[in-house]
Design brief:
The complex is a heterodimer. The N and C termini of chain A lie far apart (about 40 Å). Chain A is globular, with a radius of gyration of 14 Å. Chain A is mostly beta strands. Chain A is built from no helices and 11 strands. The model of chain A has no long low-confidence stretch (mean pLDDT about 90). In chain A, strands 2, 4, 5, 9, 10 and 11 form a 6-stranded mixed sheet that branches. Chain B is built from no helices and 10 strands. Classes of the chains: A mainly beta, B mainly beta. The interface of A and B includes residues 42, 99 and 102 of A.
């Protein structure tokens, strides 16, 4: 059974700092890994998706890396802004014909002005 | 529509009543997921539909919960004889399995409060 862990559970940083969020998963047989953000009372917004054959994806100030063999992914946020405050979740899709998606419990980020 | 649409956005009901939640996925998306998120908790998988294949119902917490989807269109999640523990946000997501993605797109959720 796939298990996804995110550390830390919460993080508070001053505006402008670069930061790294971590995601680990127990079964390396994945199809893809996706990072989301969730604002309070809202649904999830997709940030980046990394296919199992890829090592990283970039979008603006966000960079996600994937090391499938070690079961790890990181989300790097450069020059953090107060608007980045949200909960960040990673999710892995199992490989094979059926893409069951397993979510981590998230990292709650607060960027202090 | 442009995104995943869920209705109602908010539902308050009395214990013991039945409720029906609706999800309208992105057009052309073959896969549809339902998740439950209790206050301050992570996402709990409920059910998964993929085209005309048999759905994976392994996450449904009890036989009070059921879901249907006809082909690749709208899905409804029904909760019978609601209990206070059913209070949560119910999130729906869809994805285009074929080709590049498998990327999940979420709706805004349906917030259910059982009094």
């Amino acid at each position: 059974k796939q298990e996804v862990t995110q550390i830390p559970a919460a993080l508070s940083v001053p505006e402008g700092e670069n930061l790294v969020l971590n995601c680990s998963f127990t079964d390396s047989a994945i199809y893809n890994l996706q990072w989301f953000r969730q604002d309070p009372g809202k649904g999830l917004t997709s940030l980046l998706l990394i296919q199992s054959s890829q090592r990283e994806q970039t979008s603006g100030r966000l960079n996600a890396s994937l090391d499938k063999s070690s079961g790890r992914s990181t989300l790097y946020i450069a020059a953090s802004q107060p608007g980045d405050s949200a909960t960040y979740l990673c999710a892995v899709s199992d490989s094979g014909g059926y893409q069951k998606v397993t979510f981590g419990t998230g990292t709650k980020l607060q960027v202090i002005p | 529509g442009a995104g995943v649409s869920q209705s109602p956005s908010n539902k308050v009901t009395e214990k013991g009543k039945d409720v029906e939640l609706r999800c309208d996925p992105i057009s052309g998306h073959t896969a549809l997921y339902w998740y439950r998120q209790r206050l301050g908790q992570g996402l709990e998988f409920l059910i998964y539909f993929q085209g005309n294949s048999a759905p994976d119902k392994s996450g449904l917490p009890s036989d009070r919960f059921s879901a249907e989807r006809t082909g690749e269109s709208v899905s409804t999640l029904t909760i019978q004889r609601t209990q206070q523990e059913d209070s949560a946000v119910y999130l729906c997501a869809s994805s285009l399995i074929a080709g590049y993605l498998g990327e999940l797109f979420f709706g805004e959720g349906s917030r259910l409060t059982v009094l």
